Automatic annotation (TrEMBL):
This is C2H2-type domain-containing protein. Residues 38-61 are annotated as: Disordered. It comes from Cochliobolus carbonum (strain 26-R-13) (Maize leaf spot fungus). Residues 43-53 have a biased composition (Basic and acidic residues). It comes from the Eukaryota.
Length: 61
């Protein structure tokens, strides 16, 4: 197996339940590198949409 094999790459991103996409689409060879990408200050915006969907919105009475 090659290190930079596209078939085994993990990608920053996905599709939300409403059909919108989140993440930057960058491919990484290893999952731990993707996790470091998400933890970096610069790239927290990649998961901001995903995290905002997971948190329930408060209803205003």
């Amino acid at each position: 197996m090659r290190l930079h094999d596209v078939d085994s790459a993990v990608t920053c991103g996905g599709v939300l339940s409403d059909g919108r996409r989140w993440g930057c689409g960058t491919n990484f060879a290893r999952l731990d590198i993707l996790r470091n990408h998400h933890k970096s200050r610069k790239d927290r915006q990649c998961i901001a949409k995903r995290d905002s969907e997971e948190q329930p919105t408060a209803s205003i009475p």
